[in-house]
Amino acid sequence: MPHAAKNIFRWVVGPALLLCSGLVAAQSSEWTVTAKNKTELSRASETIELSLQQLAPLDQPDLTRIHVATSSGEELLCQAVDTDYDAYHKPDIVIFQADFQPEETKTFTVRVGEKQTYRTEQFRAYGRFVRERFDDFAWENDRIAHRTYGKGLETWEGEPLSSSTIDVWSKRTPRMVINDWYLSDDYHEDHGEGADFYSAGLTRGCGGNGLWADGRCWATVNQICR
Predict the structure, then answer these.
(1) 33: nearest Cα among 109, 112, 111
(2) Are 78 and 95 in contact (CB under 8 A)?
(3) Distance (Å, whole) CA 165 – CA 180
(4) Domain 4-120 has CATH 3.30.10.10
(5) pLDDT 10s digits, 47-97
(6) SS3 call for 120
(7) 127 burial class (0-12, 13-18, 19+ CB within 10 angstroms)?
């Protein structure tokens, strides 16, 4: 299973809008899932989740071998994920994504195959500690990237900085860029893929924590490693 910090999918935040009807037998090694957009809105890259219990009729405990295809036979990118963090890191759900028009219903085929292997260009989310600058942490999906400051930055002689800010890196590409941008060390300039355009500094940035009291903002210390 890909490490959680390298999650294949861009996670969808918001109320569940898809109704999974369950598994219906198609043949001994193949099953179908029906999902419906219950809203009058278009839903792009909506995440569908299938649990270990739902997949039990396939009689395959290794969820990394589960494959999902559209009704026309096109195989979709899917991932087995460990959500209960058991001692063996055993996946207990399978997730995949699809686009839905308003009130659209789609049917997917689920089968057992070879263990999933992923190519670099398929990853849609990634994150890591930024050892290039102490213990900052950076993460991204296929739309945007962020960074937050680590504890080590608070006592750095070169530029000590304590801030709960969430820094924003604007992207113009769906590919993962964190490693390449840090490697070139020129991510404040846009070379066609976007850049770190904002000086977050002591601000809250995009989502940093702070408490407003006595006419001022009382910010937390650096978020990571606390």
Answers:
(1) 109
(2) yes
(3) 23
(4) no
(5) 999 999 999 989 999 999 999 999 999 999 999 999 988 878 899 999 999
(6) helix
(7) buried
End-to-end CA gap in the chain:
28
Give the C-alpha separation, 226 to 218, whole Å. Answer: 17
Structure-token match 């080590």, residue found: 152
Could you report the per-residue pLDDT of 171-216, keeping only the tens digit for each? 999 999 999 999 999 999 999 999 999 888 878 888 888 888 999 8
Q: Is 51 helix (H, G, I), strand (E, B) or coil?
A: strand
**Cβ-contact 45, 10 below 8 angstroms:** yes
Q: Which of 12, 92, 7 is nearest to 53 (CA)?
A: 92
Provide the token pair at 108. 């997917």
Q: Where are the domains of the chain?
A: 4-120, 124-219
Tokens representing 161 are 């900085």
CA distance 101 to 152: 47
Closest CA to 139 of 167, 174, 173: 167
Q: How far apart are CA 45 and CA 78, in angstroms?
A: 12
